[in-house]
Design a protein that fits this description.
alpha+beta; D-amino Acid Aminotransferase, Chain A, domain 1; D-amino Acid Aminotransferase, Chain A, domain 2; 8-stranded mixed sheet; 7-stranded antiparallel sheet; about 30% strand; binds pyridoxal-5'-phosphate
Length: about 325
């Protein structure tokens, strides 16, 4: 179904009409994917008539780390970019769940040579309606281990959220879909599990909660860090970061993908082998429920969300 675009985007310091948010065709930020970006969700809470942006500050901190690795600087500090995200959401008057991307990109160098160093970098921010995928999580997803390996820190660092990395992700995801799976999981260069094309992996085995560490070829995920906080705080269950073998996943009790877009998505089979009894596991469901409450402004996790609209003063 074709969706109509929102009215506005944000480009290099100002709100512009959606169609005016464009880069030059030869800007390396576009044609080489020489950019770094963040995907941030906003959740509409009907009860509070509020749109809560989730962990905006943490996303912009990670954008800063990605920029550092790319030797990129932009004229707007993280604080201003956070404000720009909220300003854009307000301008579009969203009253629905949204997905915001903040992208810092390299502009055309004076020499036009995309390989040459340039200090010219800009930022664009776009936001589109993106309903929560919680409904899909009722059934979970069937995944395969990809024939494509995850990129490595010595080639295209997966720790950085750069657009170019997602060619690797697209190859794996689309191959998986062509072969009848919902998505894929990558092995890293050492042959242990890394992550999905756009999400981290968590495995439950014998009461332990495990995830591959940052050195396994994964993005340092904000959702997985949120899961770690929730389980430590509410269940006294730490999330252990260690390498995970492919066959450990085959014999796991539960597993789930987690990421901004996927939220918590139970994995119900891998390579056509059922995980547990082939249904979303009880621990996964419990953590997922708390995660959804947190992103919608649950008081215990209020420090993670930023309200977009001015809050009405309520007289006691
Ligand atoms: C490759 C990859 N891994 C992991 C994640 C999960 O990261 P986060 O939870 O910060 O969205 C994402 C999503 O952005 C991703 O693209």
């Amino acid at each position: 179904m074709a969706l109509s675009p929102p009215a506005y985007a944000w480009l290099d310091g100002r709100i512009v009409p959606w169609d005016a948010c464009v880069l030059h065709a030869r800007a390396p930020g576009g044609f080489w994917g020489a950019n770094v970006f963040e995907g941030i969700r906003g959740y509409w809470s009907e009860d509070d008539a509020q749109l809560y942006a989730f962990r905006v500050g943490d996303h912009l901190d990670r954008l800063g780390r990605s920029m550092k690795c790319m030797r990129m600087t932009v004229p707007w500090p993280a604080r201003e970019l956070a404000q720009a995200c909220l300003e854009l959401l307000r301008a579009n008057e969203f009253r629905t769940d949204v997905h915001v991307t903040v992208t810092a990109y390299f502009e055309l160098a004076e020499t036009f040579d995309p390989m040459s160093y340039t200090e010219k970098a800009g930022v664009h921010i776009t936001a589109v309606p993106a309903p929560s995928v919680a409904g899909r999580a009722e059934h979970g997803v069937h995944v395969c281990v990809s024939s494509w390996r995850r990129i490595g820190d010595d080639t295209m660092p997966p720790r950085i959220k750069t657009g170019a990395n997602y060619q690797n992700s697209r190859l794996a995801h689309q191959e998986a879909v062509r072969n009848g799976f919902d998505t894929a999981l990558f092995l890293n260069q050492r042959g242990t599990l890394a992550e999905g094309p756009g999400s981290c992996l968590v495995v439950v085995r014998e009461g332990e909660l495990l995830t591959p560490p940052g050195t396994s070829g994964v993005l340092e995920g904000i959702t997985v860090a949120s899961v770690a906080d929730i389980t430590a705080r509410e269940l006294g269950l730490p999330l252990r970061r260690r390498e995970i073998d492919r066959t450990e996943l085959y014999v796991a009790d539960e597993a789930f993908l987690c990421g901004t877009m996927h939220e918590l998505m139970p994995i119900v089979s891998v390579d056509r082998l059922l995980i547990g009894d082939g249904r979303p596991g009880p621990l996964t469901r419990r953590i997922h429920q708390r995660y959804l409450q947190a992103v919608h402004g649950d008081p215990a996790y209020r420090h993670w969300v930023t309200p977009t609209y001015q809050q009405q003063k309520v007289d006691a």
